[in-house]
Design goal:
A hairpin with a 2-residue loop joins strand 2 and strand 3. The protein is elongated, with a radius of gyration of 23 Å. It has three domains: about 100 residues, no CATH class; about 110 residues, no CATH class; about 70 residues. The protein is α+β, with helices and mostly antiparallel strands and about 280 residues long. The longest helix is centred in the C-terminal third of the chain and has 29 residues. Strands 4-3-2-1-5 form a five-stranded antiparallel sheet, sandwiched between helices.
Length: about 280
C-alpha cells in the first residue's frame, strides 16, 4: 500500500511564559493511487517541556484533516486555511527567511539540533552545552512518536538531514560510520535501539554489529548506557562480553560491576574483574 509522503509543510510554535513550548506541524501530503495522485493535509502536535520542567504530555498522533482524498488545489486551500487558524490561536511559523528554500525535512534537522544542544537542567547561561545523548535521544524519540511518523518516514527524514542514502542508513557499512560525527551517532543509536518499531530496532542492531560503531561513543556515555536497563543496554551486552576491557577499561568495568541495573551486564562486568585479578601466589 502506498504511503503518504510530505510535499510541503510548516512547523509552528506556541510559546507561553509559564508553560512548555507547543509545536504544530502542518503539511501537504501526497500518495499514489490507482486513480492518480491523492492529496491531504496532516497535522501533528508535540511539545518541549525542557523550559517548564514538566513531564511531556501526550498530545496525540498526526491526523489527516480531510476524511477523503483531495485534489492538489483543494489540499493547498485546506493547508492555507489551517495555517490561518493556528496563527489566529497564537501559533507562529518558525523563522523562515523568504530567500531561504526549506526542504521537507528541515524541521527534523532543527529538532535534532535542539536535542543535541539543549542546556543542562537548571542552566540559565546563554551558552548551550551538549547534553547526555541518551537523554537527548529519549526526547527526540518521544517527539517523533508524538508526531506520529511511520518508521519509513523516520528513516527517510533522518537519511535526508544526514545526507545519506536511506539504504545505506538501513544497511550501514564502515564507510557510513565515517560520514557521521560521533555526537550524531550517540544520538541516533538509542533512537534506533529503543524505538517501539522492530524495523528501526533492527537498523540499530545493524549499526551496532559494525566493529567501529561502539568505539565512536564517548567512554563515559557508553558506561552510562550500560549502567541502565532496557533494550539499549541489552543490545550492547554482547560487545561488552567480548570487548569489555577495550571498551571501558578496568575502572569502568569495576564501576559497572557495582552499579549496573541489568543483571546480565553486572555479571559480565564482574567476570571481567575476576579475569583481571592478579593470581594469588602460594606461600613459600
Amino acid at each position: 500500500m502506498a504511503r503518504w509522503s510530505e510535499t510541503r509543510g510548516y512547523t509552528l510554535i506556541l510559546t507561553h511564559a509559564r508553560g512548555p513550548d507547543r509545536y504544530a506541524r502542518v503539511a501537504l501530503v501526497r500518495k499514489r493511487t490507482l486513480f492518480g495522485p491523492a492529496f491531504n493535509v496532516r497535522e501533528a502536535r508535540a511539545e518541549d517541556a525542557s523550559r517548564s520542567g514538566r513531564e511531556p504530555e501526550a498530545l496525540g498522533l498526526g491526523r489527516m484533516l480531510s476524511w477523503r482524498w483531495l485534489g492538489e488545489r483543494e489540499a493547498q486551500e485546506l493547508l492555507a486555511a489551517r495555517l490561518r487558524t493556528l496563527e489566529a490561536l497564537g501559533y507562529a511559523v518558525l523563522d523562515q527567511p523568504a530567500s531561504e528554500h526549506r526542504g521537507p525535512w528541515d524541521w527534523l534537522r532543527e529538532l535534532v539540533h535542539r536535542q543535541l544542544h539543549k542546556p543542562a537542567a537548571g542552566e540559565t547561561s546563554d551558552v548551550f552545552e551538549p547534553q547526555d545523548p541518551h537523554g537527548a535521544a529519549a526526547s527526540l524519540r518521544e517527539a517523533l512518536a508524538q508526531l506520529g511518523l511511520e518508521p519509513e518516514a523516520v528513516l527517510e527524514g533522518i537519511a535526508s538531514i544526514l545526507e545519506i542514502d536511506p539504504e545505506q542508513l538501513a544497511e550501514p557499512s564502515e564507510a557510513t560510520i565515517r560520514k557521521l560525527e560521533p555526537e550524531l551517532l550517540a544520538l541516533l543509536l538509542p533512537v534506533w535501539l529503543e524505538h517501539e518499531s522492530e524495523q528501526l530496532r533492527e537498523i540499530g542492531r545493524c549499526w551496532l554489529a559494525l566493529h567501529s560503531t561502539i568505539y565512536e561513543i564517548d567512554v563515559a556515555v557508553l558506561e552510562r548506557w550500560l549502567g541502565g536497563e532496557g533494550q539499549l543496554a541489552a543490545a550492547i551486552a554482547p560487545r561488552l562480553e567480548r570487548e569489555g576491557l577495550a571498551l571501558l577499561g578496568p575502572e569502568g568495568l569495576a564501576r559497572l560491576a557495582h552499579k549496573a541495573g541489568d543483571r546480565r551486564i553486572k555479571n559480565i562486568a564482574e567476570s571481567w574483574r575476576e579475569r583481571l585479578r592478579p593470581p594469588v601466589r602460594a606461600p613459600g
